[in-house]
Specification:
Mean pLDDT: 96
Distance between the termini: 53 Å
CATH architecture of the largest domain: 3-Layer(aba) Sandwich
Low-confidence stretches: none
Order of helices and strands: HHEHEHEEHEEEEEHHHEEEHEHEH
Structural class: alpha/beta
Helix content: 25-40%
Shape: globular
CATH superfamily of the largest domain: Type I PLP-dependent aspartate aminotransferase-like (Major domain)
Strand content: 5-15%
Number of domains: 2
CATH topology of the largest domain: Aspartate Aminotransferase, domain 2
């Protein structure tokens, strides 16, 4: 029987200080009416929820009525083509979820045991796991404090003869500084796989993420800007990567004969039902991005009036899509991150902590014991994200900010 990797906080030394406390209990709350006198539409504001306001039902109904509900059907090809186009890429390979899109893209390179892949330690665990699934080793770099992304200046020092790929993660919707990273990768002949799970529609120097490296991975989980419930996509401008990824996602059936396999393939297919939702969602991408950016601007305008809150970044060369609206609490703020989360949960407002770095995870702690990444650790200790859905209203945002003010007032009485 598989046993969990247990890690006691007392065995982590001072790293234990950055580990979030237990998830707060979200309570129902009665929020005041909005400025126009209409009751609030809900008494819990979730951290994120999908917006299904386009052709989703129409397309899913068509898939059901035509009996194409499995991993073949016209919506898969339409979804792949439109999404790739929106990302500025020639090819899209839809698959079961974002994690397997990472795995699938890496698998096309032949990466395996003994190889190394450079990733940020500050990321969702799927980035590291996809590397380990292939038997390779994740090599960690710290974040830089301005955009919270991989510190590109640290990457080259981590390259060895075993380095086969670099995975920049566009954290919370803000692009990585890709030009210097690509220059390093080209110098050393390594594959660049963008982890764009959180960055649908984000732009770097006028170019859309998903077309900035050798390949990119996207997630369509329920909280993403575009969702299919579960789902993912590999985008690429390289025909060789696309053709092999299409083959590997479907058990690597040979074109010569059906039950004939020349590669170790995977069952990573997406269904026509999911793709029907994905196509409808992709049709609305610009609207969703505009909503997230508008909500972020309103949050920032209100939160800048509260001392001690660092609002999310946007570099001059970037368009941040604010997948999640993240804030960092500095020393001037009178509550800890966990205290604020508990106070908001009591008021019916759901939040999430920032990522716990890979070198602090129970399954990886021994592997990276003794390694320190101070920026990532600080972000983990002081960061959280607020409700961020595309359908968030101004009244919702005002309610969240008012609740933060209430928490601050309670703490400073």
């Amino acid at each position: 029987m598989l046993q969990p990797h247990e890690l006691k906080l007392e065995d982590m030394g001072d790293l234990a200080e950055i580990i979030p406390g237990p998830e707060p209990v979200l309570q129902m709350a009665v929020h005041p009416i909005d400025p126009f006198g209409a009751p609030q539409r809900r008494n819990i504001i979730p951290v994120c929820e999908p917006t299904l306001a386009g052709n989703e039902l129409k397309y899913v109904t068509e898939a059901v009525e035509t009996n194409w509900i499995s991993s073949r059907g016209t919506f898969i090809h339409k979804f792949e083509a439109l999404f790739a186009e929106k990302m500025g890429a020639r090819y899209g390979v839809a698959c079961a979820n974002g994690t397997v899109s990472l795995h699938l893209a890496l698998a096309t390179t032949g990466i395996g045991p003994g190889d190394e892949v450079i990733i940020p330690t500050f990321t969702m665990i799927a980035t590291a796991n996809a590397v380990v699934y292939l038997g390779a080793t994740p090599v960690l770099v710290d974040s830089e404090p301005v955009t919270w992304n991989m510190d590109v200046a640290q990457v080259e020092a981590k390259i060895t003869p075993r380095t086969k790929a670099i995975i920049p993660v566009h954290t919370y919707g803000h692009p990585v500084d890709m030009d210097p990273l690509n220059a390093i990768a080209q110098k050393h002949g390594v594959f660049v796989l963008e982890d764009a799970a959180e960055a649908h529609g984000a732009q770097y120097k006028g170019r859309t993420v998903g077309s900035l490296g050798d390949a990119a991975s996207f997630s369509f989980y329920g909280n993403k800007i575009i969702t299919t419930g579960e789902g993912g996509m590999v985008t690429t401008n390289r025909e060789d990567v696309a053709r092999l990824a299409w083959n590997l996602r479907d058990h690597a059936f040979s074109t010569e004969r059906h039950f004939w396999h020349k590669f170790m393939g995977y069952n990573y297919r997406i269904t026509n039902l999911q793709a029907a939702v994905g196509l409808a969602q992709t049709e609305q991408l610009e609207k969703f991005v505009a909503a997230r950016r508008g909500n972020a601007a309103y949050y920032t305008a209100l939160l800048r009036q509260i001392p001690g809150i660092v609002t999310p970044p946007e570099a001059a060369w970037a368009i941040n899509v604010f997948w999640m609206y993240g804030i960092v609490l500095d020393q001037e703020f009178p509550l800890t991150r966990d205290e604020l989360r508990n106070g908001l949960a009591k008021r019916g407002i759901e939040t999430r902590t920032f990522f716990i770095p890979m070198h602090c995870q129970p399954i990886y702690f021994d592997q990276y014991r003794g390694e320190r990444y101070p920026v990532a650790e600080d972000l983990c200790k002081r960061g959280l994200y607020l409700p961020s859905a595309s359908n968030l209203t101004r009244a919702d945002i005002e309610t969240v900010v008012a609740a933060i003010r209430e928490c601050v007032a309670e703490a400073t009485r």
